[in-house]
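Good morning C.,

I know you're traveling, so I'll keep this short. The sequence:
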Amino acid sequence: MSALYDPGLQPERTELAWRRTSLALAVGSLVAMRMLPATLGGVGWVVPGLVGLVCAGVLWQAARHRTARVNDVLLERAAGRVLPGGALLGAVAAFTALIGVFGLVVVILVALR
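The tokens, ready to paste straight into the viewer:
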């Protein structure tokens, strides 16, 4: 009988990709915290950056949990469990779309000044 899966580094590479995604979200949020108040005025524009930082932390933890679950399933340590679906990817896509809409609103606000 052959091995259940290739013992390569695919799960680890996937986890690293999720980490890069969460780090990119965190850096973008820090840039937003720095630039939005300076561009639009007012301390309230720090809030979107804080929300992004929280989302980056949640994404980091969710990715760690997802990798552990994938490893358990692939190594047959979790009988009856299935591989995780695309909910995390869908959440990241929705958040990215929300960032895009927010960016459009900011551009319009700056243009109307």
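Safe travels,
E.
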